[in-house]
Protein: Inactive N-acetylated-alpha-linked acidic dipeptidase-like protein 2 isoform X3
Organism: Vicugna pacos
Amino acid sequence: MAYQKVNADQRAPGHSQYLDSDDLQATALDLEWDMEKELEEPGFEQFQLDRAENQNLENSETADLNLDSIQPAASPKGRFQRLQEESDYVTHYTRSAPKSKPCNFCRLLKIFCTAIILFIFGILIGYYAHKKCPSNATSSGKLDLQLYQEILKTIQAEDIKKSFRNLVQLYKSEDDTEISKKIKTQWTSLGLEDVQFVNYSVLLNLPGPSPSSVTLRSSGQCFHPNGQPCSQEARKHSSQDPLYSYAAYSAKGTLEAEVIDVSYGNADDLKRIKEMKNVTNQIALLKLGKLPLLYKLSLLEKAGFGGVLLYIDPCDLPKTANLSFMVSLNPGGDPSTPGYPSVDGNFRQNRSNLTPLLVQPISASLVAKLISLREDRASSGACTPLELPSNEKRIVNMQIQTVTEFKTITNVVGYLKGLTSPDRYIIVGSHHHTAYSFNSQEWASSTAIITAFIRALMLRVKRGWRPDRTIVFCSWGGTAFGNIGSYEWGEDFKKVLQRNLVAYVSLHSPVRSNSSLYSVTSPSLQQLVAEKNNFNCSRRGQCPETNISSVQMQDDANYFINHLGVPTVRFAYEDIKALEGPSFLSEALFPKHATKIEEMDPFFNLHETITKMQRLYFIIKNYGWSYSREMLLGEVILQIADGPILPFNALDIALEVQNSLKGDQPDTPQLLAPASRLRESAELFQSDEMRPANDPEERAPVRVRMLNDILQDMEKSFLVRHAPPGFYRNILYHLDGKTSQFSILLEAWEHCKSLASNETLQEAVSEVLNSISAAQLYFKAGLDVFESVLVGKN
């Protein structure tokens, strides 16, 4: 048999290099062997060359090779091609058929090695490409600039305005069923998941069949709470009627007694009054503000008063002289089930009133009539606070009529399930109108804003994106009666929320004025909010003071702050001049019409800005890039819900504690050393655990989860067991923006001024000391856990 080297240029065009002749196609044996492999095969010595000298195959394309046995020759493609078959092939070729098993093994080995090399090479390419190039994936956990911009573009003032007007058309419904159905229908149509009603049967204190009245014994004149004479025909009963101004859960009945002016009703005021007069079973003329109403009523009750005429001084809140208002004496939740949810089967307590005092809100114009204010004084340019002359005596008869009934209040709750941590919740809460109450029209603003945000989010969700953590949208019922809806829902799901709730974002009454944006937030979130507030002024070259504080709020965040210790944030447009006046004036609820909201914000630009937050320069250190653009209130939510690391600052809590101990309060020096240790532990936690976690290359999933679990529970250490009525149990929040000291220490110090014993002060100091020590041990335990994890890995 003879073999010849075949060159590519000898092949006819269009012929495959593997199919050069009909003989090759018919050949039974495929003799495409590798030269080196063939030489290594055993038995190769049987093959002998007829000629001792080998010719160079490239010298002649037609040279014949006379072989006594098979001599492999390599083609340009490294393959053998058989050309002809000799007659004495069998005699010369004494070797058996080629061994297929070793050949197949070698070929498989080559393929396997090649695949391994390609696989390793692909991994290396992928690693360096991922390291150098940002991911284009829209998975949650990535702060995607394009994602936020797309959400931003879908939020429009006109949509918020339209939603607002649709909601206020249902305002006069006799119950909140129609409003709740409307909200649920809207949220469901937008694609929000598992939108549901959560109903509770609760005890409500409502206005009686006829308005309450105040009668002057000296003249016999009778007045309704707004100052209108009783002789005029009363209007048809409506909770929004100004004639029906009342205090929910007040005692009811009739009391005739002397009116004693106690001003704002603090400890000093009462001490001064008690030294002058016998106050037992008398009627206190009390101004709203400066301290929580429930606290002041508790002081009046201890002093022995029998009734209270409550009003707002026009110098504190202008344009309210002729307005009636409503207040609630309920600290929170259903009064018939204190501390546990109002569900079927639970015991119901008989609590028609929450105070033995007869409390009646009245207008400032009625107060002027009671004290016989002269016309020249009332019309003078300067504002003079209302005050009953000390040398004059006024005896009045006050009659209060209320009824107590069980009513159903409805919460609307919807979910946007998280992708990687669906068991961690961020609640975004607003409230809707509850019948028989002074809800004004602010509920429609908050509901329209939260609906606009849901619409923007769900448009993105339909394109495949989801946040890491679950966002729960809630519209609460029964807010005007003491945040009943949020309290009952919180008590109902308390065990789950204690473990899984990360933060609460409040949209309660977002537009109260058109002057300045004001933020109330937990200390752990102040840095995040401050960054967002500082961009607007950076381009103008001058920055006003940032309006951020940690003060008590009168809204549905109450339960989550005081019973769960959850970081909270709220944005609202406020009247800064009003904020400079006495605090706690927002405890009064006025019947405000829809036209008032549209007068303050006719084009709903403020509503849009609240939803979008405001312009700022924000640096994402975690990902090494920065941008300037319109930021969202929604981005605060998204950064908490979607960021790999919760944006809570441990060190800010320690600094807030130290600032709260400044001043000349007695018995606080013993708290300075624990506060210093807390700061040291927080600084160590911040540097050793939080900073490395902000580097994407150092984020181990287990460490990130452990870190976030520690961050979300930081504020729980500051929940004290007992607080004065109306005071927050979470001592990180102050009474107002003018005081920085711990509120329970301030109250205890004021209380001790009128007592010989300082037992109350010592109890308060112990509460604060225990909170600081618990927080310090909490951070230390967190550091120990991380250290043990590292040691275990090593």
